[in-house]
Amino acid sequence: MGTPSRLEIVDSAQAYDGYAVRYDSLLSENHINAHMRSVMTSLERATFRPGERLVELGCGTGDEAIELASHGCDVVGIDPSAEMIRVAREKAASRTLRGRLRFHVGYARDAAAVLSREDNPHFDGGFSSFALSYEEDLEKVRAGLVEHIKPGGVFLAAVMNRLSGIEWTIAMASLHPSLSGRRLARATRHKVGNVQTTVYCRSPRQLSHAFSPGFTLERIRGLPVVLPPHYANRPLRRWPTLLEALSRIDARVGGWPLLDELGDQTVVWLRRTP
């Protein structure tokens, strides 16, 4: 976000096809991205039990699916980028996970059709880290999950929020209100390598509405709420001790009332209803 307008605007699949070979370097280069991935992985491990069958929407290069397969889950990952899926399959092939991982090319909105091709199309739950914001309309996503996730199952997702409290504070203090205000538009831009793609920011209430009927919202948290968004990593790298301290605080307070609605991303726990 905050991308120069001169960059070419492409579909998310095309954007990540061109970025796949560099994608994994994000965690070593960007402390904030690494913090967000670490928190999401911890939440996933705490939410899902060994032996459960899960679907991941927007699996990227497969790290979280591999982590949960190592945790004892059976995971089917879906991503629109063929290159990201290629990397994910290469990673899975290099590990001994007893067939617990499968990866398919497809958009989140196509989950119903993709999962119907599985020998067992029924899942105990699912998750999506930072990927559903590329979907303009979540109705097909909801319908696909309702079809394939069993009643009582949990869908855990992190989605770009419409109001980041720390970003708004920085924007006002620096006299650049557009930095945060762009989230209020129906659509905004997100830089991926040397191109940009479209993202759609949603409030916690909008997310709850988008997944109803079929799911009820049980819990939310913000991520991050104390750390600024990922694009602030470069200036903050000059103060590694501060980054570490803010990360520790963020991990503790993201679920506090009020703060849980003001993260860069909103993490939601959605329960599949009968």
Can you characterise this structure?
The structure is a single chain. This protein has 274 residues and is an alpha/beta fold. The chain has one domain: Rossmann fold, CATH 3.40.50.150. The chain has 13 helices and 9 strands. The strands form 2 sheets. The chain has a 7-stranded mixed beta sheet with strand order 3-2-1-4-5-9-8, with helices on both faces. A two-stranded antiparallel ribbon has the order 6-7. 43% of the residues are buried.
Outline of this structure?
This protein has one domain (12-272): 3-Layer(aba) Sandwich (Rossmann fold). The mean pLDDT is 93.
Features:
single chain; 274 residues; alpha/beta; Rossmann fold; 7-stranded mixed sheet; 13 helices; globular
Q: Could you give a short account of the major beta sheet?
A: 7 strands, mixed
Mean pLDDT reading? 93
Number of strands: 9
CATH fold-type name:
Rossmann fold
Work out the count of structural domains. Answer: 1
Uncertain ranges: none
The name of the CATH superfamily reads Vaccinia Virus protein VP39
Separate helix tally: 13
What Rg is obtained from the alpha carbons, in whole angstroms? 18 Å
Helical amount among residues, as a percent range? Answer: 25-40%
